[in-house]
Amino acid sequence: MSRILIVEDETHLAEGLRFNLEAEGHEAEVAETGEAALAAIARTVEQPFELIVLDVMLPEMDGFAVASALRHSQNFIPILMLTARARPEDVLMGLESGADDYLPKPFELAILLARIRGLLRRAQWMQTPRTPPNVFTFGNKRIDFDTQELFAGDRKMRLTTMETNLLRYFVQREGKVVSRKMMLDEVWEVREDTDTRAIDNFIARIRKLIEDEPGQPKHLLTVRGVGYRFLANPE
Ligand code: CA
Fold first, then answer.
1. Which of 55, 114, 156, 195 is deepest in the core (most CB within 10 A)?
2. Is residue 125 scored above 50 in pLDDT?
């Protein structure tokens, strides 16, 4: 039972989503423009939405701009972005603008509902208090998985849920080779064939966060033709 904001200008699709989310027991609200979405979020700080289903193609302010605006204002609500096509550049732009997951249109309703369940489950899991603190230190960096923060020296950076999940995935497999397919299956929970360039671009983004010299990575290494390997303490 979660409060979900649907941002979609196609009324039939928006109302269909609302109907189905309510049938799943959620409380759903529709915003037809990016501006209306930001206003609805600003209006509901007391009882915030727990997830946003955000269409990219909106009149005037598009979904990328909405996601960026939220992240810039330190709002880290999970975002499931609906991209017009499965173009890798759309997917990449979505993830770069701060989306946690994406689904190309047209989509199967069952897949959308499964993705929403996955995002809500992960968000809830992130909030479950655990002791000792869920912190991992490597080099001059420290990740707090509970608060989704990365500390580099005295700099503190906020991580998106997807960045946090991916970093946790690597930390749990420290020293082991992780294939792109494994990452798609287990982190993005994508089963269908997806262009793996989106992953490489996402890795480049992670390197900017955790590497002193992103072009000369020491912690997150490329394993040619296979995938990646995370080393906490490189030689
Ligand atoms: Ca639209």
1. 55
2. yes
